[in-house]
Amino acid sequence: MKDTFLIIAYMAIWLGLSGYIATLAHRQKKLSLRIELLSKRLNTEKESS
Amino acid sequence: MTLTNRSSLFAGAAALLMPVAIGMIFFYAPLEKTMGSVQKIFYFHLPLAFSAFLSFFVAFVAGIMYLRTRRQVWDARLAASVEIGVVFTTLVLITGSLWGKPIWNTYWTWDPRLTTSLILWFIYASCLILRSAVEEEGKRATYCAVMAIVGFVDVPIVFFSARLWRSIHPVVIRSDSVGLESSMLITLLVSMLAMLAFWIGLYKFRVSLQLQEAAANELLNPKD
A11: which chain B residues are within 8 Å (Cβ-Cβ)? Predict the structure, then answer.
């Protein structure tokens, strides 16, 4: 019985922390896409001027 | 060395220390006499709690520094530390409840330590909600800085609650001694070190992400 709580607690810790890291990685990916979009926009502006 | 490189350095240290800590928890630290195996939650419950306190202390300092200097980097540090602190406090509350059920026969009781910890979670979670609700950058940073400074009042209250009031929550670190056997104490210190390395890596990564997002936003939507 006590072992079950121990296992659930450790699962909660690792799922929680890895879930948070995954969220940050997703945000980083979204940011990279945004930066790509930005550089494309800048290139287009340069070419048109 | 860039912020992301330093983040990788600490993440690497955490990746090395975490398996060592887990190995020590399960193969080196002895079983506690009355609580048995479930007591092993403690070796991550306490480091998570201390890391959460560290987060809120950094948020408190960053809040003061932002109000004094109005520099965006302090707002980024504040946002990063509050977010990490809320994640860690959530895990402290979850692991505490899971530890409490087999020992106290309840997941939750309105004990001073538990109640003040929940209040701490509410304060900083509302700071995160506030961040997403206020659009104007300057106002958002100011409100959050004030909230992080005022909210920090609860951190010493949480720490001393089990000492000041009648509480069923155990007090491990006392002013004159640490209520742990030496092998348990060594395991706890290794877990603390692993969690601290993890916290620093996470914090540096989160700050760099916050700054990059702010820079990209500014370039995509330039102010007149």
Answer: none
Q: How far is A12 from chain B (nearest CA, A)?
A: 7
Task: Indicate yes or no: CB of B87 within 8 angstroms of CB of A35.
Answer: no
**Reported pTM:** 0.90
* Encoded amino acid at A33, one letter: L
Locate the domains of chain B by residue range: 20-29+39-171+182-213
| CA pair distance B94, A12, nearest whole angstrom | 8
pLDDT in tens, B134-164: 888 889 999 999 999 999 999 999 999 888 8
Interface contact B87-A8, CB threshold 8 A: no
DSSP string, B2-15: -HHHHHHHHHHHHH
The position carrying tokens 């946002």 is B79
Among the partner-chain residues B90, B91, B216, the one whose CB lies closest to the CB of A31 is B216
If DSSP codes are grouped into helix, strand and coil, which group holds residue B170?
coil
Question: How many other C-beta atoms can be found within 10 angstroms of the C-beta atom of residue A4?
Answer: 13
User: Chain B partners of A12 at a C-beta cutoff of 8 Å?
Assistant: 91, 94-95, 98
The amino acid sitting at B36 is G
Task: Please name the residues in contact with B78: beta carbons below 8 A apart, sequence gap of 6 or more.
Answer: B58, B59, B62, B63, B66, B141, B144, B145, B148
